[in-house]
Specification:
Layout (H helix, E strand, L loop, with lengths): L3 E2 L2 E10 L13 E6 L8 E7 L6 E3 L3 H6 L8 E8 L4 E6 L5 H10 L2 H4 E5 L4 E5 L5 E3 L3 E8 L5 E4 L9 H7 L9 E3 L5 E7 L3 E7 L11 E8 L2 E3 L2 E3 L5 E4 L4 E2 L5 E7 L1
Antiparallel strand pairs: 1-19, 2-3, 3-4, 4-11, 5-12, 6-9, 6-11, 7-8, 7-10, 9-13, 14-15, 15-21, 16-19, 16-21, 17-18, 17-20
């Protein structure tokens, strides 16, 4: 595959942020997500930048098996890497207690599910892997990178009264209404290449400091700058952009770098 900077698709959301910085497109409307994909040639992974000014819906994604039983190509597992926060930035991941399916349905209808989420205060560098079936929500004041299976499939359980469709039957059916049991951590700050995630669908590494990128993972990778400028095939890319290429073809424009590298398994 030819090395390339992936096209950006801006997605407006009621919970998004207005007036994004220039390197994120400089949009004045409420942008919630920037997607990096090739619609004419779907990629195995979908990378996104997310920006929140309000809470996202309480939602859940199916596994491959559950999705295929519904006539869909695949389920959706994802990883969040927090890059910036404002105020009381929190992520709701899993529940504080085990619920039955009927209790989950009742809590979703009444809105009690919001207070049953395990809301975790987060800071830049924190990351969480979200297995299929995990009930979750993103709070206000969060900027993060999301790396996921390339499937646009979300079942909303609760949406704070917004006039959007809920998906209670499917959402309850695919949920694991229990405390979070995935992998999480804080990105290392020492120089080098650090493995954050090794899942059945993708790996994620974070490269920090002065690192020889010519000796990093082989094959096409999704290269996502968190800080600094990089060059590939004579083009400059920076935070707010994603390149798909072998890591060895990237050249940092300064001696130090902060780069996420995702690769499909």
């Amino acid at each position: 595959m030819t090395a390339a900077i992936l096209p950006r698709h801006f997605v407006e959301k009621p919970w998004g942020q207005a007036g994004l910085p220039a390197h994120f497109g400089g949009r004045e409307e409420k942008v919630g997500e920037i997607w990096f994909d090739r619609p004419e040639e779907p990629l195995p992974l979908l990378c996104k930048w997310l920006f929140t000014s309000e809470k996202l819906s309480v939602q859940v994604h199916p596994s491959d098996e559950q999705a295929q039983a519904r006539g869909l190509a695949s389920g959706k597992e994802e990883c969040w890497i927090v890059t910036a926060t404002e105020g009381d930035a929190r992520l709701g991941i899993g529940l504080t207690q085990q619920l039955s399916d009927e209790e989950l349905r009742e809590a979703s209808l009444s809105g009690a599910i919001e207070d049953m989420l395990d809301w975790k205060t987060v800071a830049p560098g924190d990351w969480y892997y979200i297995p299929a079936g995990t009930i979750h929500a993103i709070g206000a004041g969060v900027q993060l990178v999301e790396i996921q299976q390339n499937a646009d499939i979300t079942y909303r359980l609760y949406d704070y009264g917004r006039p959007r469709e809920l998906h209670l039957d499917d959402g309850v059916a695919v949920s694991r209404p229990a405390p979070y049991s995935g992998n999480c951590g804080t990105s290392p700050t020492s120089p080098g290449l650090h493995r954050l995630v090794a899942s059945p669908y993708f790996t994620i590494d974070r490269v920090i400091g002065e690192v020889d990128l010519s000796r990093q993972p082989e094959g096409d990778c999704y290269c996502i700058p968190v800080a600094g400028e990089f060059e590939i095939s004579g083009q400059i890319f920076e935070p707010g952009e994603v390149a798909l290429c072998p890591v060895s073809e990237i050249q940092p424009k300064s001696g130090s770098c902060d780069l996420l590298i995702a690769q499909a398994v």
